[in-house]
Amino acid sequence: MCYFNEMLMPISSSGFPDSPDSDDSRFQEETGSDVAVEEGRPKLKEPAKYAVLLLNDDYTTMDFVVDVLQRFFRKSRQEAAQIMLRVHQEGQGLAGVYVFEIAETKVAQVQEYARAHGFPLRCALEPLL
Ligand code: TYC
Considering the domain 49-127, what is its CATH architecture? Predict the structure, then answer.
C-alpha cells in the first residue's frame, strides 16, 4: 500500500485512491452506523514458533535439570531424564516449542528458579523456521 504524504490517503497502483469495495480490511471496519458490514476475509497466519533450549554446565545437578523439565515443560520423569542426558552429552537439548510470549516466559521462569536454587543453569530461545 502506498500513501499520499500529507493526507495519508491510500492510493492504489492505478494512482487513484482505492475504492471502498476493494478487499482492504480498513474499509470494512466499524462504521458507527447500525448497518451490518460484511467483514473481509481475515488473512490468518500461524504465529512464529520458538525452541526453548537447555544448555549444559558443570555445576547444575542432573536431578535439578530433570525437575526443571518436569515442572516447567510438563515432561514425564523418563522423558525429562532423556532430555537432561542429551544436554549433558551434547551441550544443549530441546525442552519445548512455543509461541514467542510463552517461550520467553519459560526462559525467565527457568532462569529465576535456577538462580533461587543457586545453580547456573542456562536456558535460551531459538526461532524456528
Ligand atoms: N553437566 C551437569 C552435571 O554433570 C548436568 C547438567 C545437565 C547440567 C543438563 C545442565 O542443562 C544441563 N552435573
Answer: 2-Layer Sandwich (3.30)
List CB contacts of 104: < 8 A, sequence separation 6 or more. 50, 125
How many CB atoms are located within 10 Å of the residue 50 CB? 22
Which residues, in sequence order, are CB contacts of 12 under 8 Å at separation 6+? 2, 18, 22
Q: Where are the beta strands (DSSP E) in 63-115?
A: 92-99
Name residues contacting ligand 1 (CB within 6 A).
Answer: 54-58, 60-62, 65, 84, 87-88, 121
Residue whose C-alpha is closest to residue 95's, from 85, 116, 80, 112: 80
pTM equals 0.71
Q: State pLDDT tens for residues 69-109.
A: 999 999 999 999 999 999 999 999 999 999 999 999 999 99
Distance 40 CA to ligand 1 centre (A): 52
Instruction: From the CA of 60, give the closest atom in ligand 1.
Output: 8
Q: 10-51, pLDDT tens digit by residue?
A: 434 443 334 334 444 443 444 455 777 777 888 899 999 999
85: cell is: 542426558
